[in-house]
Design goal:
By secondary structure, this protein is an all-alpha fold. It has 17 helices and no strands. The chain has helices at residues 11-42, 53-68, 76-91, 93-96, 106-123, 126-141, 143-152, 155-174, 188-212, 217-244, 248-273, 278-300, 319-343, 345-356, 361-372, 378-404, 406-429.
């Protein structure tokens, strides 16, 4: 008698096969995550669990979750969790009696998480479970570096982190997410979300400074300084060049690198605000970025002394600068909308020119946002960004001359000449 073909298989049989395959996959992932975390714990001095215990805990979680799907055994998952907690307590009897000086409960918490991960693989989303399991393993592995980094944080650094939490986790959620005001372009939630983005980029640069320390070298000094604030970096190095009366070329190069890293900020901002339009923005902006990179590289290899002591940057998460940027961004939004209505693209370019003298982020975010909404052509948007960046280069050259003296101004102008000319050429010749 022939076996029934797959075409004639009953729906119940197909469903059963699918469920079995899902179960096998869940248990296999549970075993893999348990092995991964257990392998990391095996190398520690904490012997509560290791490469055998953690996979068993993960499988226990998956098994109890699978059995709890039976209507008559829904209580089993809770019993399994309580059993794991009891085993952890038994494994910590010495500590509970005060006979052990071992500190921390990392392994115990990890064991509970592994049990819950095993259960979640059966009852929840496998992708999320894998992500959480991988994150646990990474956090456990990099414990020494994370502790070292935390100890290096000063009170000022911790205040920066807390201020960023205020900006992103307290202020942002309570703002209304709707448009109002002139031309109906002001959305408090959207404006503050972009404030959080800019502060976050600056905070990332500040974290990079804390990791590499003050002696970052010319290249990292310019890159990190540009991520935090290219204008502030220009001010700092112009003052240093004036006070020391030496190192004019290194100072000018740091200013150029900081100005070049401005394009990195622009790419991130466009990618967040208008991800679908990013490929349309990239060609002209990447060309200018590449020209600036070439000038940076040529100058860098011609300077014999490449070491540099990077001064500690200011706190990028201060509330006052965030408020100023938010207000500036709102003004630019309204100005662009008004200029477009009354003067067309030429009006937008004038706004970009004026706002670019002090800040490129505002015009980048506003024009990219309008392009994403279809309220502005992409060609007009990236041209506004280029005009703003050229205005910003002019502004930085003025700062260098005013604070660093004529000699620094000449050095900066020599480095800025090619990128500036390239920007003019792109505006003039790009189709």
């Amino acid at each position: 008698m022939e076996a029934p073909s797959s075409a004639n298989a009953s729906p119940d049989a197909l469903t059963s096969a699918f469920v079995d395959a899902e179960s096998i996959l869940s248990f296999a992932i549970a075993l893999g995550l348990g092995l991964l975390i257990g392998l990391q714990r095996e190398r520690t001095t904490d012997r509560i669990g290791g490469i055998r215990t953690f996979p068993l805990i993960a499988l226990l979680g998956a098994l109890t979750a699978k059995l709890s799907q039976n209507p008559n055994m829904g209580w089993l998952l809770l019993v399994g969790l309580l059993a794991v907690i009891a085993l952890i307590l038994l494994g910590n009897l010495e500590r509970l009696r005060g006979e052990s000086d071992q500190r921390g409960i990392t392994t115990e918490v990890s064991a509970l998480l592994v049990f819950l991960l095993g259960a979640f693989l059966v009852l929840g989303d496998k992708t999320i479970a894998v992500m959480v399991g991988g994150t646990i393993a990474v956090l456990l592995q990099f414990k020494p570096g994370m502790h070292k980094f935390a100890k290096k944080l000063s009170e000022r650094d911790l205040r920066s982190v807390m201020q960023f939490a205020v900006l992103s986790l307290i202020i942002l959620p309570i703002l209304p997410n709707r448009t109002f005001g002139p031309y109906d372009v002001l959305n408090p939630f959207a404006i503050w979300l972009l404030v959080v983005l800019i502060v976050g980029i600056g905070l990332g640069g500040y974290a990079a400074y804390k990791l590499v320390g003050g002696r970052a070298g010319i290249l990292l000094s310019g890159l990190i300084g540009g991520l935090i604030s290219s204008t502030a970096t220009t001010v700092t190095y112009a003052r240093q060049a004036h006070d020391q009366q030496k190192g004019l070329r290194p100072a000018a190069l740091v200013i150029l690198i900081a100005s070049t890293s401005m394009f990195i900020r622009m790419f991130v901002e466009i990618g967040v605000v208008a991800p679908r339009k990013l490929p349309d923005f990239l060609p002209p902006l990447l060309l200018l970025f590449g020209v600036s990179l070439i000038i940076c590289a040529l100058t860098y290899f011609r300077i014999p002394q490449r070491t540099d002591s990077m001064p500690e940057p200011g706190n990028p998460a201060e509330l006052k600068p965030a408020l100023i940027f938010g207000a500036l961004y709102a003004v630019v939004l309204v100005a662009i909308a008004a200029a477009k209505e009354y003067f067309g693209n030429r009006g937008i370019y004038v706004v970009a020119l004026i706002s670019g003298f002090t800040d490129v982020d505002a015009i980048t975010l506003s024009s990219a946002n309008l392009a994403a909404q279809g309220a502005m052509e992409v060609n007009a948007a990236w041209r506004a960004m280029v005009i703003a960046s050229l205005a910003n280069l002019t502004f930085k050259a003025g700062i260098a001359g005013a604070l660093g003296g004529p000699a620094l101004l000449r050095s900066v102008l020599k480095l800025f000449a090619v990128p500036f000319a390239a920007g003019i050429a792109v505006l003039w010749l790009w189709p």
